What we know:
By secondary structure, the chain is α+β, with helices and mostly antiparallel strands. The protein has one domain. 23% of the residues lie in helices and 43% in strands. It has a 15-stranded antiparallel sheet that branches. The longest helix has 31 residues, at 2-32. The radius of gyration is 23 Å and the shape is globular.
Amino acid sequence: MKKTKLIYSLSIIMLGTALVFTSCKKKKAFKExxxxxxxxxRAVQTENDQANNDVNTxxxxxxxxxxxxxxxxxxxxIQKALGVTATGYTIDTTxxxxxxxxINYNGTTVNNRTRTGSIRLTIQNFxxxxxxxxxxxxQVDYLAYKVTRASxxxxxxxxxxxxVTNISGTSWFELLLTPAHPNAVTSxxxxxxxxxxxxxxxxxxxxxxxFTYSLPGGVLTCTGEGIGSSDGLxxxxxxxxxxxxxxxxxxxxxxxxxxxxxxxWAPVQGEVNIKVEDKDFALKVLFSVDASGNSVSAAANSCxxxxxxxxxxxxxxxxxxxxxx
Length: 325
């Protein structure tokens, strides 16, 4: 009987010690949190969005890939009307007759970003399918595509493959010229996109997004939603592993909106919920805030300063504000 009581007492002590240790570990994780996972997530999504802007621009610019008549309005005129400026790269059209072109970045610094590497675009089932067709799938291969911020030297390099699907059967070209098609809708999906940061550490992203492009007031505007699912969570824009090897998910709780007036890097609306493995708190990201972290209305005349991340453990909340550029 005494032996049984001793074992029971030791079990209680061990359980209590484990609970205290776990509580201390969680408290330490909360105190040491610096929002880095949210900053990485923002950086990867921002540069992926910019790359997809180039993809939309150049697949529409190429007559063979787009599938329009050579006698239609010029690509330059469409870009000018949309406010799109394609800079910092050249286009290799050698394989256009087979449904593929390559965007080669030349290291020019534009909007605080220096880009090198290439992105290869290939229409699947070409020439049966053209980019103007609903359901057309464009394979996008990132080939050492690297973006470096000129202001602080931080960088992300993307390697891997994504598929961009034309859901609406409308491209930026038709968006401007055809009033009957007020929106252009695409999805961007890809697994195991490899991301390398400036410190040499790598992360893996599985990106699942739906974009709706429109022209309210004549300004090209994009609304991004999460369409992925993992571990019982839905509306995920991406999930995978962080640069530290921890599993993470990023859930869109309010659609993310950017326009060409403020730039793809400066959303004027949106919220995401980022959860990192072994942390009992989420990183709640709010886009479109001022330098103090106060929400800025999307209807305001000026563009927002940046975005805010908050995390809460028990009754304590911490926050950090990041500038868009």
